[in-house]
Specification:
It contains 15 helices and 19 strands. It is α/β, with parallel strands linked by helices. Helix 1 packs across helix 4, helix 7 runs parallel beside helix 9 and helix 9 runs parallel beside helix 10. It is globular, with a radius of gyration of 23 Å. The protein starts with a strand and ends with a helix.
Length: 431
């Protein structure tokens, strides 16, 4: 019997568990640990609440979770409740699938001013992550600036633009919905250092901006490259650029909420007295694919700033960490003997949710080569004995299903659920 511990219950974790079952069938037992009492990680707290079809992938993970050989071990913090070294004594392999849940720092003068947030925190706030429920962004100003040219920036801009009616069918949490309902924002600027041909935005997400009831996306026509140059782009990016060309025909003048793309614009400093009031921006040009400053500066009013420039993995005591890359130091997923990483924890925040599936299968192939038939370790029985000694309040998948039922029961009309945003409330809801 092989015993595998997976740290993190998001897509990378469950795809790895699925791969382990396909590799060994009944000859493996997998424990999936999470510091929260609820599973699915990024699917629950990272995917936009109005993208329910994407969240539906959790049904696939549930099939794996309900296997007799897979167990969810929630409400257990690795490095605090139990160490990596201790887990290594119980399990043949420990796989870190912790993702990249921290914001890459903006690292600009003034980035600690009030009402400046990273996207992990801001998205966590409207998605009901317990760590970010008290964020309380001030939406009483007129202009929000979203820094970044990826899908997360589009998510933030779209969420800030929507009406209450447009959130029908979503699982945005009540405290965020109520705050957005009284928002005074009238202008949202999406700020990017490079140009339309360098965006990381996908066609579907860009297209959604064109169907908002009160938000009007607009692009300065002068920022668009010659249309003939689009032929050199890969097909997906070409479709995205086509959306931008359509937005270049829009006028945001008089719109309830103007969503302006500001290309070739690099933030250099955040300005304000205690709270952000403006951003100093430098115009850029593209040289060899890189944005370089032109020396031309201007100030952009900003009452709210959300930085969507990437994420970092959280270090774990006893695990080598690559500070520059913001992920665990590894060689194709191997960290140390018996210790592995997968998904964003391995490669950094890149790819889609589905990218984690081949990643999980690849790491299991490596583990299979390394551990053979297993070393006769105690596995979950060893952990359970330790948990009892330390009086850990472990949450099982069956407990989670009761929490899920309670969230469904308290949902507002038309919504799939109203998430508990406090860990203590989650624990109480399991009965």
């Amino acid at each position: 019997m092989r015993h595998i511990a997976i740290i993190g219950s998001g897509p990378a974790g469950y795809y790895t568990a699925e791969a382990a079952l396909k590799q060994w069938g009944e000859d493996v037992k997998v424990d999936i640990f999470d510091r929260l009492p609820v599973p699915f990680g990024l699917i629950r707290t990272g995917v936009a609440p109005d993208h329910q079809s994407i969240k539906g992938v959790s049904r696939r993970y549930e099939q794996t979770a309900l296997s007799d050989n897979v167990r969810f071990v929630g409400n257990v913090t690795i490095g605090q409740d139990v160490s990596i070294e201790e887990l290594g004594g119980f399990y043949d392999a420990v796989v870190l699938a912790t993702g990249a849940p921290r914001d890459r720092p903006l690292d600009l003068p003034g980035d600690r001013l009030g009402n400046v947030f990273g996207s992990a925190a801001f998205v966590g706030w409207y998605n009901g992550h317990p760590e970010f429920t008290s964020l309380a962004p001030d939406l009483s100003g007129e202009t929000a600036v979203v820094i970044g040219m990826g899908n997360v920036a589009l998510d933030v801009a779209r969420i800030l633009s929507k009406t209450r009616d447009e959130f029908a069918g979503s699982d945005i949490v009540a405290h965020a919905l109520d705050a957005l309902d009284v928002s005074k924002l009238r202008r949202i600027v999406i700020l990017g250092r490079r140009g339309p041909h360098q965006i990381m935005m996908t066609p579907k997400e860009l297209g959604e901006l064109g169907h908002l009831s009160r938000g009007t996306p607009a692009v300065d026509p002068q920022d668009m490259p010659d249309e003939a140059e689009d032929a050199l782009l890969e097909p997906g990016l070409r479709k995205s650029v086509n959306h931008l060309r359509a937005f270049a025909h829009n006028s945001a003048a008089g719109a309830d909420i103007a969503i302006e793309f500001d290309f070739f614009a690099a933030p250099r400093a955040l300005l304000g007295n205690g709270k952000v009031e403006a951003i100093e921006v430098e115009r850029t040009r593209i040289e060899d694919g890189r944005a370089v400053g032109t020396g031309a500066f201007y100030e952009l009013p900003a009452s709210l700033v959300v930085s969507c420039i990437g994420y970092r993995t959280v270090p774990v005591p006893g695990v080598p960490f690559d500070e520059r890359a913001g992920r665990f130091a590894n060689d194709e997923g191997r960290i140390l003997p018996g210790l592995y990483c997968v998904g964003w924890a391995r490669r950094g925040p890149s790819g889609t949710i589905g990218t984690n599936r081949p990643d999980g299968f690849a790491i299991i192939e490596q583990i299979a080569a390394d551990i053979g038939e297993g070393a006769g370790k105690a596995g979950r029985a060893g952990f359970d004995a330790l948990a009892e000694t330390r009086k850990l309040d472990v949450v099982t998948f069956r407990d989670w299903k009761r929490i899920e039922e309670a969230e469904s029961a308290r949902a507002r009309s038309g919504a799939p659920r109203e998430k508990f945003v406090d860990v203590a409330d989650m624990i109480r809801a399991r009965g």
